């Protein structure tokens, strides 16, 4: 019976390039493996799941590298719905390495909490899989599924400390606003599908042209989609969830959310804007301009008032997001499109290194101080010189002081903006410059505590930093320094400029 | 005929939706949600999306609403939300302004682009073949063809959601004092 | 075809959902309002799918339903979690952190 029905259906199985989706396959297999291993190992051996997660992430990096060296052409699956190009590979590598650092950060933190290690790493790995998928997605359905794939585990990670009221609150706020944002974004996507007749971004790009009949629905669809992602990247005024979630969630999860989750939001935003609706830049550029200006300014001003370091870093991360939006807001198409795309990718790479490093220092120092107050970092240099110096490096990099990575990122962003060279561009460049100066205020404040203030309570016992944290600090510290000293390594991604043309294939 | 079905189903949808947002008792709101979901399912049949109409009834009206009711009952039905005592003085009028504003915006946009929506962009792919199974077959071909990566990953997502949900709601055995 | 009418119905449903999310303070009710928005999305997708004669809208709606099911499960788990710790699910009482 079944066979006769099947015989009637002309069915051609899709040809799948398994090499191209190998990273996702490794990660999905890893998720299942960790769930199973977690079932069978005893309480005292749960650390196995942490090591396995690390190996799975590094294992997924191997096909990314082989894809990078194997052939120069972009691979395109399913009529261009899933694309492996230089942009996708760079970001996949970023997500995997950032994920590995987060695993290193989590190891001790999670072991000290007394429960659910296996589930923690399963959720972390799932979220990373969604991000890796996001980097390649070039159609609305894949982008939506990838977004939910990375968000749903992240909601649960934020609420992971079940008995802690703050962690619950963080999870619920993140969940409700995240789900609301993706519902709004979906509404925009449904309109976008309707007016262009395709879910494929390159096809949408062909249908939406400036001189064709570009109506109110087109504009509304784009605005709704951008609003949805503005929530994800915590752009002001859609940022209200971020400080509470960052403060309440376990600190390694905060590091993960503020770096990887945010980067994934930007990746999706950039893909949709560049591939899907580049012609409609008159709609989204002013909107992003306002978002970028507000995000930088409000994030900075609120960061100045914080006394809790994680909350300060939350606002600092909001304001850094404004700097990533800045090149997009003025340089979406035309000559400046290449530099803008390059600036965003470079900024994401550098920001991941320095922000993860900053959180690594906070986690390491909090092992002694047991406090999140900025004043508790007083005299850090006197009793833990290594951490003091590293913290200064990361703070200086976040502030954009040469010759560190953060300087290169800011430089690339401003260069892209100035390349656009119109009044709007100069306007946002001025706002950005003013904000760079304001940022010295709160970064400098922490530095002053570290170097000049005495330790509170006369606490001078040296901090024992566990090996995994030392590894995380080494990776992020080296990356921050190298990206600054050898900008060629990142600016090599100048080739990304070619992508703008090739993006839509 | 088409219009009659549309009007009746649309009335169901809107009455149900208003019930969800206005009823003070969560159980009544959940039952209103069922009305909306059924109305939407009727629309799906009218749009010849037979498979999704079935999914809508089974998954949404069946599983999801039962889940809602289950949680509401677990938390206690008597805890009705008193909408007359409103803690955020600003929030409700603000929500009303946002709601009405958005509806005006969307309506204006849709009416202004009536042509663009009606025309179909010259991408006509003949679908209606008179074959009753065609909708299901086409969805199958699409899900297992172009969207297969998303499909496989969704299955992983469902497993992980189950794992995470169990983690969040399970009581801890070590006796560390969570009652 | 009644495409435009379907879109207007979707728009009304969307706005009712948005109002519900912003105005209700019971977490379960907010989740239900989000379901209303997702239904308006599905209505749009299928109306367009039928109008355009392309199956992609159907597939998209199927994914929306599948993912929404996972989302609701997780959301209700979180509601239970806060209820256990605080004995309330009113969102305005979630204010341990400020600033």
Describe this structure in words.
The complex is a heterotrimer of chains A (about 500), B (about 180) and C (about 100). Chain A is an all-alpha fold and about 500 residues long. Chain A has helices spanning about 1-10, 20-40, 45-70, 85-110, 115-135, 140-160, 165-195, 200-205, 215-230, 240-250, 250-275, 280-305, 310-330, 335-370, 380-385, 385-400, 405-420, 425-450, 465-485, 485-490, 495-500, and strands at about 75, 80-85. In chain A, strands 1-2 form a two-stranded antiparallel ribbon. In chain A, a hairpin with a 4-residue loop joins β1 and β2. Chain A is globular and about 80 Å long. The two termini of chain A are about 40 Å apart. The model of chain A is unreliable at about 500-505 (pLDDT under 50). By secondary structure, chain B is mostly helical. Chain B has 7 helices and no strands. The N and C termini of chain B lie far apart (about 60 Å). Chain C has one domain (about 5-90): Helix Hairpins (Orthogonal Bundle), CATH 1.10.287.3510. Chain C is about 80% helix and about 0% strand. Chain C has 3 helices and no strands. Chain C has helices at about 5-25, 25-50, 55-85. The N and C termini of chain C lie far apart (about 50 Å). Chains in contact: A-B, A-C, B-C. At the B-C interface, α1, α2, α3, α4 and α5 of B face α1, α2 and α3 of C.
């Amino acid at each position: 019976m079944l066979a006769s029905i099947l015989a009637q259906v002309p069915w051609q199985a899709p040809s799948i390039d398994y090499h191209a989706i190998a990273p996702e396959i490794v990660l999905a297999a890893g998720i299942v493996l960790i769930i199973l291993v977690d079932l069978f190992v005893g309480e005292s051996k749960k650390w196995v799941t942490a090591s396995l997660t690390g190996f799975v992430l590094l294992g997924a990096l191997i096909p990314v590298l082989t894809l990078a060296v194997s052939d120069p052409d972009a691979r395109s699956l399913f009529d261009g719905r899933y694309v492996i190009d230089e942009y996708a590979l760079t970001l996949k590598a970023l997500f995997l390495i950032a994920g590995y650092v987060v695993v290193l950060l989590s190891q001790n933190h999670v072991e000290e909490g007394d429960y659910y290690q296996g589930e923690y790493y399963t959720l972390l790995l799932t979220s990373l899989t969604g991000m890796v998928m996001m980097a390649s997605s070039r159609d609305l359905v894949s982008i939506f599924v990838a977004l939910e794939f990375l968000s749903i585990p992240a909601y649960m990670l934020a609420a992971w400390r079940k008995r802690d009221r703050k962690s619950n609150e963080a999870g619920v706020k993140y969940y409700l606003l995240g789900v609301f944002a993706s519902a709004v974004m979906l509404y925009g996507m449904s309109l976008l599908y309707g007016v262009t007749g395709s879910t494929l971004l390159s096809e949408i790009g062909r249908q939406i042209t400036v001189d064709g009949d570009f109506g109110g629905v087109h504009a509304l669809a784009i605005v709704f989609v951008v609003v949805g992602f503005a929530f994800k990247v915590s752009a002001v005024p859609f940022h209200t969830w971020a400080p509470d979630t960052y403060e309440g969630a376990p600190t390694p999860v905060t590091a993960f959310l503020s770096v990887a989750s945010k980067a994934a939001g930007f990746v999706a935003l950039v893909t949709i804007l560049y591939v899907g609706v580049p012609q409609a830049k008159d709609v989204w550029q002013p909107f992003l301009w306002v978002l970028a200006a507000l995000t930088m300014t409000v994030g900075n001003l609120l960061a100045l008032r914080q006394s809790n370091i994680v909350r300060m870093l939350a606002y600092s991360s909001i304001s850094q997001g404004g700097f990533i939006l800045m090149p997009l807001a003025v340089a979406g198409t035309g000559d400046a499109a290449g530099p803008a795309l390059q600036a965003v990718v470079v900024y994401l790479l550098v920001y991941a290194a320095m922000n993860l490093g900053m959180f690594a220092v906070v986690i390491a120092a909090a092992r002694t101080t047991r406090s999140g107050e900025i004043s508790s970092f007083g005299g850090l240099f006197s009793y833990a010189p290594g951490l003091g110096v590293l913290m200064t490096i990361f703070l200086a990099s976040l502030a954009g002081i040469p010759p560190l990575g953060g300087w290169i990122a800011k430089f690339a962003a401003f260069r892209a903006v100035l390349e656009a060279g119109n009044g709007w561009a100069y306007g946002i460049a001025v706002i950005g410059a003013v904000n760079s100066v304001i940022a010295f205020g709160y970064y400098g404040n922490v530095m002053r505590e570290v170097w000049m203030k005495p330790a509170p309570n006369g606490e001078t016992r040296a901090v024992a930093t566990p090996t995994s944290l030392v590894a995380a600090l080494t990776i992020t510290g080296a990356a921050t320094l190298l990206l600054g000293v050898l900008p060629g390594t990142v600016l090599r991604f100048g080739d990304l400029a070619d992508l703008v043309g090739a993006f839509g294939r | 005929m088409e219009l009659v079905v549309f009007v009746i189903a649309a009335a169901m949808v809107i009455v149900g939706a208003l019930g969800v947002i206005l009823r003070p008792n969560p159980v009544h709101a959940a039952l209103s949600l069922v009305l909306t979901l059924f109305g939407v399912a009727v629309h799906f049949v009218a749009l010849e999306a037979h498979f999704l109409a079935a999914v809508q009834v089974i998954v949404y009206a069946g599983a999801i609403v039962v889940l809602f009711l289950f949680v509401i009952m677990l938390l206690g039905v008597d805890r009705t939300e008193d909408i007359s005592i409103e803690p955020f003085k600003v929030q409700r009028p603000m929500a009303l302004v946002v709601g009405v504003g958005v509806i005006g915006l969307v309506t204006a946009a849709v009416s202004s682009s009536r042509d663009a929506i009606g025309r179909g962009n010259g991408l006509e792919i003949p679908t209606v073949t008179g074959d009753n199974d065609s909708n299901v077959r086409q969805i199958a071909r699409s899900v297992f063809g172009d969207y297969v990566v998303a499909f496989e990953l969704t299955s992983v997502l469902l497993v992980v959601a189950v794992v995470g949900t169990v983690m969040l709601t399970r009581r801890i055995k070590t006796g560390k004092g969570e009652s | 075809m009644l495409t435009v009418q379907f879109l207007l119905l979707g728009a009304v449903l969307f706005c009712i959902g948005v109002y519900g999310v912003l105005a209700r303070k019971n977490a379960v009710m907010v989740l239900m309002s989000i379901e209303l928005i997702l239904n308006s999305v599905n209505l749009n997708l299928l109306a367009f799918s039928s109008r355009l004669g392309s199956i992609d809208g159907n597939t998209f709606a199927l994914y929306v339903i599948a993912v929404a099911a996972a989302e609701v499960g997780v959301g209700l788990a979180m509601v239970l979690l806060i209820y256990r710790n605080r004995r309330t699910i009113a969102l305005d009482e979630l204010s341990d952190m400020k600033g």
